[in-house]
Design goal:
The protein has about 150 residues and is an all-alpha fold. It contains six helices and no strands.
Amino acid sequence: MDWGLFVTYLVACGGAAATGAMFQPGDWYAALKKPSWTPPNWLFPVAWTTLYLLMSLAAMRVAQIADAGQALAFWSMQIAFNTLWTPVFFGLRRMRAALVVMVFLWLSVALTTLAFWQVDWLSGLMFLPYLTWVSVAGALNFSVWRLNPNAPA
């Protein structure tokens, strides 16, 4: 295990996590109508902490394999969209624009999962919970947008 690589990827995830600290849901989000299946608020930091650890561990493993450049490029793409979503949704309060970001996030996570699986099946397996979570988050983003068509930004 290359702890330097792991920490490097974890710091990249920390940049994405920092947007969650800077742009918290707050009263605006609390006032929105949400579907009955919305996860409880306490689950979000637990899920993201777990996912960021798995994402960093998976990337660390893949980074040590020759010819993994494309897989790591997909990892870079997904962390960029991951970082962008929170400021768009909670900061700008643009639910439809956030949904567009979410589509690109989901696609980049799916591509990363497939690319990691081809290089190191265990790393691909570590990305499956993230793909599942982003799928739920995308459905939630869509549902909240549809339930609140006139929500002020």
